[in-house]
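Record format v2
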Amino acid sequence: MGLDITWAVDWVRLSADVIAEHRIELITLDREIGDGDHGENMDRGFQAVLPKLDDLPAGSTPGDVLKLVATTLISTVGGAAGPLYGTAYLKGAVAAGSAASLDGPAIAAVLAAARDGIVLRGKAESGDKTMIDAWTPAVDAAEAAASNGSDAAAVLAAASDAAWAGAEATEPLVARKGRASYLGERSAGHRDPGAQSTALLLQAASDAASASAGA
Amino acid sequence: MRRPRPRGREVGTPGKVGIVFVSHSARIAEGLVDLARQMAPSAALVAAGGTDDGRIGTSFDLVSAGIGEADAGEGVAVLCDLGSAILTAETALDFLDDDVRTRVRIVDAPLVEGGVAAAVSAEAGDDLAQVVAAAESARGAASTGAAGPDGGAGAPGPGEPAGAASAHARSITLVNADGLHARPAAELVKLASTFPQRVTVNGTDAKSLLAIMSLGLTKGATVEIASDDPDGRAAVDAIAALAESGFGEA
C-alpha cells in the first residue's frame, strides 16, 4: 500500500510534535558541541509549517507537502539546519514528483534525494559527525528494504531504525564539519544534534506510515 | 578627483557591483556597511545580518532581499561569516532566477578585510570579477604584511641593476596627519584603478587597498610612486599629486 497526502500531513504534524517534545534535548546536545540553537530553531520551523498545512489546496500531493516544509524551514530556521533540511525536503519533493501515492521504491528514492541534497549543500561526508551519519544508513536500509519488495511503511521503518543507529554511532566521532569542528577532539563523546533530529524526523515518518496502515 | 555623493538609502547603484554582507549578527553586518561606506560612499552595500526577528542566525529572506537590493545589473558579491551563513546564501542563490544567479558570487574571503576591499573595488566601478578578486586578495592579509617594517621592499636598492629601474617614478613625502590610513589609501587605490597601467607605491601594487594599507605609511614617510609601463607617467603624476595634496586633509 502506498503513502498518500494523509501520511505526508501526518508526518509533518508528528514531526512538529516530536521536535517540540525533544526541544530541550536537542538544545542540550547542541550546546555541548555547537551553538545551542538547534532545538529552538527546529521547533520554530516546524511550528511555522503547521498553520500552513490547513491552506493546502484540495488535490495536493505528498510532494506538495514536502515542498511546503522546505520553503518554510528555509525561511524560519536561522541556523545551518534551515538550508540543510530545507534542501533535503526540496530535493525529496522533486523526487516525489506529482505522484498521489508513494510506494516502497518511491519512498526510498525520496530519502536518497533528500540525503543527496544535504550532501550537496553541506559538503559533509560520512564520518564527519553530522546529520549525514544518520541519513546515509537510513537511505541504505530503505533501498535494501525496497529492493526486497517491502511496502512503503516497512521501508520507512527500516530507515528509522538505521537512522537511530547512525545517530548513536556519531557519539565517539570527532567533528569535521559545522560549528562542532571548532572543538576538534573535544567534540568526541557527544551525539551530533543534527543526526539526532534526523532520527526523530524519520521515526515520525515511520510512525505516520504505521498509523496510515492501521487506519 | 570625482567624489560621489553619499546616499541616504541602499539600493542598487547604477553601473556598480553591489555587495551584501551576511553575518549571524545584524550589528556585525550593519557595522561592516558603516566601515566600508567610509571608503565607498556610493556603491550599493547591503547588510543582511541576523534572523528575521533579530536573533543571532542568518535569514534566507534577508539575504534574498539583500541581493535584490544590491543588484543594479552589474552583479553582486556576497560575503559571509560562519558556515551556516554560507549555506543560507547558497540556498538563496538556488532560488534566484537563472539570469540573476549568473551575476551573483559568494566570495570566500575574510568578512571585514575582504568586504572593505570589495567595496573599494565596487566604488571604483570595477566589474564583478575584479570585485571578487579584490575580496579574495584579503585572504591571509594579516600574515602578509608584505613589505616589512620599512615598507620599502620594492624600491630599487643601491647597486641593483639598472634594468630594475622604473620607466617613471616620483618620490614624495606624505604631508597629511595620518599618512596612508584607510580613507586616503582608498582614495589612492581608486585613483590608481582609473589607469590601465600598473603603478606601485614603494613596490606594492597601487590598486590593492590591503597591500597599500599594510605598508603602514605615516606622516613624513617618503613614498616612491612608480610605473614600469612607458605609458604610466600620467598615472604616477596623478597619484603623486593626490598624495602631495594631503588627500584633502590637514
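The interface with chain B takes residues 35, 37, 41, 74-76, 78-80, 82-84, 86-87, 121-122, 177-179 of chain A (CB under 8 Å).
The CA atoms of residues 3 and 74 of chain A lie 25 Å apart.
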